[in-house]
Amino acid sequence: MVYGALLNHTGLVGPVEVDVKRRYTFADIRRSAALLGVPLVGPPVHPFRSLEALRTVSLFFGDPRCLDLSTALAQACWGAGRDLTDSNVLAAVVAETGLQVSGLEPRLQTTETKACLRESTSLAIERGCSEYRLAVWETSCFGVMIACRTSPHGSPVRYRSR
Predict the structure, then answer these.
(1) Residue 151: CB atoms within 10 Å
(2) CATH 3.40.30.10 fits 3-148, yes or no
(3) Which of 9, 71, 92, 153: CA 20 to 30 A from 131?
(4) Domain residues of the chain, as ranges?
(5) What are phi and psi of 82, to 5 degrees?
């Protein structure tokens, strides 16, 4: 789903658009990463255009390795500082997860791929994306930390809610 579209739907602005929220959010991310022992470099530029990365994930929604791809993209961006706006980086991460790379860049631009991402965003809104849920996400980047933390076997660590 496209975070910016969810913000627009609720009338909110992202945490990096408000100076005090930006400072707090990045301090919270650094603190959470340190507590979890997760490497944190961060993207080369923030905010950044994430549409191509989101479209990349949407291409593999039906594949059981889609979660692995999502985790690998988060790790590449936040853990290794790789640029997810670079099509070569996206292709490399897709290849690292064992998914089909050939023709990736043109596939990201198809009407079907764009529609898939729009549909998943609409579905999130229909299922109750609320101001409260977005506010909680904005002030706690624990989800990014979970996405970046991996087990010794290389799979994402699964956390159960209490």
Answers:
(1) 9
(2) yes
(3) 71
(4) 3-148
(5) -80, 150
